[in-house]
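Handout, section B. The chain below has 495 residues.
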Amino acid sequence: MMAALVCGCAVGPDFAPPVPPDVSGYTPGRALARTVAADVSGGQAQRFAKGRDIPGDWWRLFGSQPLKTLIERALKNNADLATAQAALRVAQANLAAGKGAYFPSVDGNFSASRQMAPTAPPAPDENGNLVLPESPAYNLFTGQVLVSYTPDVFGGIRRNVESLQAQSDNQRFQLEATYLTLTSNVVVAAVQEASLRGQIEATQSLIKIATDVLQLLRTQFNAGQISESDVVAQEAALAQIEQTLPPLQRQLAQQRHLLSALTGGLPNQEPPEKFKLDALHLPRDLPVSVPSQLVQQRPDLRAAEDNLHSASAQIGVAVANRLPNLTLTANVGSTAPMIDQLFSPGTGAWTIAGSVVQPIFHGGTLFQREVAARATFEQATSQYRSTVITAFQNVADSLSALENDAVALQKAVASEKATNHSLTITRRRLELGDINYLLVLNAQQAYFQALLSRVQAQANRFADTAALFQALGGGWWNRNDLDPPKEYPFFNLKD
C-alpha cells in the first residue's frame, strides 16, 4: 500500500496555463502617443504610457473628493459585492472540506440493547409439575471506534482538490470582477450625471436666449416692423427647446436613482454628492498595459483560466473513477452485558479489513462521464478564448474612443464658438432690422445643437478614460483600500 501511495500518480492531464496571444498591440497600425487637446475643461491632451502600472484606486485620478466618497460608500454597502464575497467564502469552505478526503475518517459508536432469546417449552420438575424456564432476557452494551481510509492511489482525490482550488480561485477573481464593475459603474454614472446637468444648463441658457429673442420680436411686431408669423415661429422654436428639458430632467432623476442603488440605498435615499463636468479632472497620463500582461490583469480572464483549470482536473476525477478503488477499514471496541464491564478483560474485539473495487459494468455511465468531462474542458477552452478576444476588443475600443472623442471634442468646441459668434451677430442685426428672422432662427438652432454636442463630447472623454481603466483590469493587484475579514484574506492577491 505504501509503495502504491508513493509511486501513485494523478491520472488525467496536468494543467498548463494558456499562452498569451502573440501580438504587439491592440489596434492596427502605429499606436497613438497622445490625443489632441481642446480649449475647454476636460479637453486636455492625454498621453499613453505603454507598460505603466495601474493604481488600485484609479478613480482618484479624476481629482474629485465627492466621487471618492461615493465609491467608498458603494464598496461598503453594495449588495452585489457582498454577494461575491459570500460566494468566495463558500468556495473556500468547499475547498477545505475537499481536502479532508486526504485523511482517514474516524467515528465513535456506542449502542445499548436489551434482547431476549427464544424460550424453551415448559419442562416437568422432580415432582412432575410443568415449570417454565427463566426468561433469557439480557442487556448488551457495545462501544467501538471505526476508522476508514481510502488511499489516493490514482490521484482522484488530488484532482478533485485541484478542481476545488481552481473553483475557489475563480470565485476570487469573480469578486475582483464585481469590484471593478462596481467602481467603473459608479464613475460612469457620476460622469453621466455631470453630462446631464451640463445639458440641462445648456438647455436653460438656450431657453433664456430664445425668450429674449421672442421679447425682441414682440416689440418689433408691436412697432409694425415685422409680421406676426415671425413671432409665432419664435414661439414654436422656444416651445421646441423647452420640450427637450423634461426628458433630460427625467434622465437625471434616473441617474440619481442608479447612484442610490450602486451605493446600497433605495431610490428615496439620494446620495448627497452631486457632479458637474467642471469639477472633474481629466487624467493626463494613461497606462496602456502590454498585451502579454493583459491576460494576467483582467479578472474575468483569470476567472476564465481558473474555470479551464477546474475542467481539466475534472477529467482526472472521471478517469480515476473508472480505476480500482482501495478502501481500508478498522474498528476496535468492546461488548459487555453490563455498561461498567465494557473495559473488562475479555470483552474487547477488533477488526482490520481491506477491499478493492474495480468497476466492471455500469451501463457506460463512468465512460460517458469522462467523455462529458473532456467536452466540458473543450467548452471552457472556447469560453476562455472568447473572453480573451473580448478583452482585447475592449482595450482597442477604449483606445479608439479616446483618440476619436478627443478630436470630436476639439471640433465641438470650435463649432460652439463659431455658432455662438454667429448667433450674437444675427441677434444684433435683428435688433437693427437688418436681416430676416429666419437667419436668427437657423443660428439659434445651430448654436443649440453645437452646445449640447460639446457637453456630450466633454463627458465622453471622462467616460472613455474610465472605460480604459476598466478594460485594463483596474489595478486590483495594487489594491489597499479595503480591510478584508481576518478569517478570509482574499485580497492578498500578489502571491
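Note. The chain is about 55% helix and 10% strand. Compare this with the example in section A.
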